[in-house]
């Protein structure tokens, strides 16, 4: 289990690790992925450290998913994708590598955008 003290995303939230911020409100933060699979690949996290969907509270979930359309529209305006995938890995065996809940917003640019 990752504690808040050794969590990369908690360190981004506190400003200890820099990240290119896309969106912020009192409960949610979004920033560009350090290794973008397409241009504008963004991670959306709750400010509260909850590990995965099995831990996610209703309050956190509501705040997070309420922010998603706003963030998607901001990405659409900034990068002009033709589509967007939303992805979430829960548990190491499911591909989760950072154990602070997050959604991947992956803008898509059509065939040949290099993803999927
Ligand atoms: P997961 O595999 O847990 O679904 O996704 C974790 C994501 O976090 C990966 O896409 C990875 O590139 C991203 N990531 C890991 N460390 C950092 C970091 O220090 N800064 C940023 N912006 N993204 C990170
Ligand atoms: Zn965390």
Automatic annotation (TrEMBL):
Q: Where is this motif: Histidine triad motif?
A: 100-104
Ranges of residues in domain HIT: 8-116
Tell me which species this is from.
Evansella alkalicola
**By what name is this protein known?**
HIT family protein
């Amino acid at each position: 289990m990752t504690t808040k003290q050794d969590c990369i995303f908690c360190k981004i939230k506190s400003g200890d690790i820099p990240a290119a911020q896309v969106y912020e409100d009192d409960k949610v933060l979004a920033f560009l992925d350090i290794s973008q699979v397409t241009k504008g690949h963004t991670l959306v996290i709750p400010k509260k450290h909850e590990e995965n969907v099995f831990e996610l509270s209703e309050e956190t979930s509501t705040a997070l998913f309420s922010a998603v359309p706003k963030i998607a529209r901001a990405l659409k305006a900034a990068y002009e994708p033709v589509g967007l995938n939303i992805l979430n890995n829960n548990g190491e065996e499911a591909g989760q590598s950072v154990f602070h809940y997050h959604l991947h917003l992956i803008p898509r640019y059509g065939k040949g955008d290099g993803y999927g």
